[in-house]
Every structure is written in structure tokens, then in C-alpha cells.
């Protein structure tokens, strides 16, 4: 993505093709530690995130996002492996034996998407709170 963006910018500015290895190294040298994006300069530091729930809950969420097409790469769809690598990076948490954990979640007797149902409940409670605040203002 990074190199494609640089090529696109160079073409738009009618610049000759630069030596991308030197350009890439120069860009890497400018990246601040823990900066999450090569393209967006942050005015305030982005906090380091940690997943505060189970691996299985994280797997439920990421697989649902990947399968729904809600998160895609510039090149198109993300594989299950890619989305899990992104989750591990984003939340600073390695996920051990993801296939086993996904199979265990899938085989649950009562509800195989416990975390997603919990999220749904939290969003509904949030909506109700906003509705109540709006009623009180009237």
C-alpha cells in the first residue's frame, strides 16, 4: 500500500520514478515509534490498546467483521489469517490456537456467538440511554 501510494503521488506530480528502496528507507526513518499509520500525522499520541476479554471473544468479533466484509484491505478482501494478525497487532495480544478456539465456540450448545450477543445488548442499552436523555430534554 505504502509503495503504491508513493507511486500514485509521483505520477500525479509528473515526477521521474524514484529509487523506492531509498524513498522507503527515508520514510521509515521518519516514522515515530508506535505510530500506527504512515500517512496520518497524529497531533496526540494514540494509546496502546489491549484486549480486555477472552481470545474467543476477540476471534468472534474479528471473524464476524472479516466475513461481513466490514473490513477490507486496499487490495480487496482480507483472509481469516490476515484479520487475526491485524487483531493481534492492534491489541498487542497473540492468539494461540485460533482454529481450536473457533471450533470450540462453534460447538457451543446454547449460543455460539456469546460475545457478539453481549455487544448487541450493550449497543441497545446505549440507544435506550440516548432516547431517555432526549425525552428528558423535551
Any overview of this molecule?
The structure is a single chain. This protein is mainly α. The protein has two domains: about 1-35; about 55-135, no CATH class. Helices cover about 60% and strands about 0% of the residues. It has six helices and no strands. It has helices spanning about 1-10, 20-30, 55-70, 80-90, 100-105, 115-135. The longest helix has 24 residues, at about 115-135. The termini are far apart. About 10% of the residues are buried.
Distance between the termini: 50 Å
Count of DSSP H/I helices:
6
Tell me the β content: under 5%
The backbone outline, from C-alpha atoms, is extended
Largest sheet: none
Structural class assignment:
mainly alpha
Output the helix-strand order: HHHHHH
Quick tags:
6 helices; 138 residues; 0% strand; single chain; mainly alpha
In brief:
By secondary structure, the chain is mostly helical.
Topology record:
Blueprint: H1 2-12, H2 20-30, H3 55-68, H4 80-90, H5 98-106, H6 114-137
